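User: Last request for today: this protein with flavin-adenine dinucleotide, please.
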Amino acid sequence: MGLTRRTFDAVIVGGGGAGLRAALELARADLKVAVLSKVFPTRSHTVAAQGGVAAALGNSEEDNWHWHMYDTVKGSDYLGDQDAIEFMCRAAPEVVYELEHFGMPFDRLSDGRIYQRPFGGHMQAYGMNPVQRACAAADRTGHAMLHTLYQANVKAHTQFFVEWMALDLIRDREGDVLGVVAMEIETGEVMIFQARATLLATGGAARIFASSTNAFINTGDGLGMVARAGVPLQDMEFFQFHPTGVYGAGVLITEGVRGEGGYLLNKNGERFMERYAPNAKDLASRDVVSRAMATEIKEGRGAGKDGDYILLKLDHLGADVINKRLPGIREISIKFANADPIKEPIPVVPTAHYMMGGIPSNYRGQVVAPRGGNPEEVVRGLHAAGECACVSVHGANRLGCNSLLDLLVFGRAAARQIIDDLRSSPQARKDLPPDAGEMTLARLARLDSQKNGERVADVSAEMRRIMQHHCGVFRFPDLLVEGVKKIKETAARAARTEIQDKSKTFNTARVEALEFDNLVETAVASLISAEARKESRGSHDRADFPKRDDANWLKHTLYYKEGHRLEYKPVHTKPLTVEPFAPKARVY
Ligand SMILES: Cc1cc2nc3c(=O)[nH]c(=O)nc-3n(C[C@H](O)[C@H](O)[C@H](O)COP(=O)(O)OP(=O)(O)OC[C@H]3O[C@@H](n4cnc5c(N)ncnc54)[C@H](O)[C@@H]3O)c2cc1C
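Assistant: Here's the final one, the structure of the complex with flavin-adenine dinucleotide:
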């Protein structure tokens, strides 16, 4: 078997916020680390994050990590693991100050401290009233953060493999992960990256939906790799719909707009959120606002000639605030909605945005899977952080600004665990199994030799239609059952796709076909998990089971590719040091 092999202490798949934060920690510990990325690192989706990163700094008003923890547990609709949530909220101020010291250009208050804005679901004093907790750099926080982390990595001599696509994990007979098989997009060369630690930081997969705020590269590659290697995927029924995607285009309008004082109107000019969330109003959590908007539209109060969108008004903030705090939003609105928000409202609709589920991991960034009676046995050598990981801090619904935080906290934690592992057992690396890379080469050979197959574009359009129609903001039993059948058929078609262009050099058709394998894996897992969960919780809203059912469903879903099998495992209801927050009705 003639694949070239390179060896590292650690290989990180993904150059977004999570991958770069982890890489920095590893490189600073003098480990030999490789970061693989499909795109130049600063083009990862983290660059698009607008609103901010949550941390209870209390710079403008009183705040503390315990309130933040409460909001996150409540926001997760009690499906989040409380040990991990405590870990994240406690670490938040530290990782944000660390980022500040790496050079992050945050907006400032007049006294020089970091500027913070209110964000959905972030409240003072256990849900009393909105609090300024989102640390922001105008409406380009992710851009500032990703560039800061990239520069810090350059300084620390992290080795980047840009435009390399990881295709599969290498797992030996004991189930240990020994690295990845990857393809250089420029040349088509396939190579083995062997490492004692492999960290997946491949980001989200909201591209399974027709209307999405996500970048085209967010194709769930880490999830596909894990599923093919026999590790389950967790809580895949929970996809977040962001309330404010630009009507028609799907591009995101940050919740920061509402944080700065913007609000939603129906066609009658009514501020309808007052009816759905009398206290938090437009700053209720995302699942609540998205459902309210979808209900307004469904009941005939949508704006526009087809009555199918909602208006986001912010002209009352004045040109100064809009130009200073939301310049990117103004640009997006003019470009994609033909509306200048200084003068008129922006037409918006709920749009697929964030994947709460993903690769099952603990708060140390170790990937875990059931084995020998333990529901959370560590998969040795495999780690995950960022949106692809399900820790689970976001449970059934993520609060805005908790993702950038998650990248920093768990990127760092995963790296620290890797450093500990490598230092505590410095034994020789394991040998690769004799068949390393063969599955990948077979997948590539299949694509090259396929005759009379279908076009990737056609099958993937069908997948997006199915997800949008059968597994959207509101979920109906008959549509879910039919959706499962259709998505399985689509997955079967995905195994027979054909590419016309067989060249090796920058073959984007091949890349898209390989990405589609991962997308379809994600979509199947989502629909099957959603059909099975007979309750409504967070972003998962079923017409036939409109209530949360803690007696039967306070548990995490695990989906296995093999046989489309489902298992469940308990939620960690016990925090690390404080008293648990017991489930109660979620009102905003
Ligand atoms: C428009 C938008 C706005 C957002 N705003 C906010 C916000 O204000 N606050 C907040 O907290 N969250 C926000 N989020 C969510 C948050 O930005 C993301 O969840 C987060 O940035 C994901 O970071 P990541 O490091 O996990 O992945 P990404 O930043 O998506 O990076 C993934 C990386 O993996 C690489 N990759 C993927 N597959 C492969 C492969 N097969 N081989 C090699 N490399 C691969 C990619 O090249 C990329 O480098 C927003 C999301 C969107 C879409």
